Amino acid sequence: MMHCFGAGWEEAKRALDMGFLISFAGNVTYPKAQGLRDVAVKVPPDGMLVETDAPWLAPAPLRGKRNEPALVKHTAEVLAGVKGVTAEEIAAGTTRNFARLFGLTGLA
Questions:
Q1: DSSP 3-state assignment of 98?
Q2: Does a structural domain hold residue 36?
Q3: Which of 70, 85, 66, 75 is nearest to 26 (CA)?
Q4: Helix, strand, coil content of the chain in percent (nearest 5)
Q5: Do the beta carbons of residue 19 and residue 39 sit within 8 Å?
Q6: How many CB atoms lie within 10 A of CB 24?
Q7: Distance between CA atoms of 66 and 63, rounded to whole angstroms?
């Protein structure tokens, strides 16, 4: 897993080609993070995770405050918007990816 990914598409593609998942945190919601959102558009659904990076990197609506797991919904909503899917689809896909990554059954 590429934790709290913040690089460009070339780095993401290289990581995906090696079997890594790209994990997006609250920084993808920041107004100046268009480049990161552009990367998110290209990451396939089976290559993506969403994380909080708590207690840091609270999503844009709460930037500067303490981050917590409940705020990951803001990150998922931004990713859904740029990918043209629903937040529920992002949640379902990233839950499947999480379960696959950690070898969990019955989660997705």
A1: helix
A2: yes
A3: 75
A4: 55, 5, 40
A5: no
A6: 29
A7: 8
For the chain, the domain total comes to: 1
Half-sphere exposure of 58 (CA within 13 A, CB side): 11
Q: What angle do CA 45, 48, 54 make, to 5 degrees?
A: 145
Strand duo 48-50 + 22-24: pairing:
parallel
Q: Which domain holds residue 55?
A: 9-102
User: What is the CATH number for 13?
Assistant: 3.20.20.140
Judge whether 107 lies within some domain. no
Angle between helices 72-83 and 34-42 (to 10 degrees): 70
Whether this model's pTM surpasses 0.70: yes
Residue 3 placed within a domain: no
In the Cβ-directed half-sphere of 26, how many Cα atoms lie within 13 Å? 23
By C-alpha distance, which of 57, 93, 92, 99 is closest to 75? 57
pLDDT digits (tens, 9 = 90+) for 1-29: 999 999 999 999 999 999 999 999 999 99
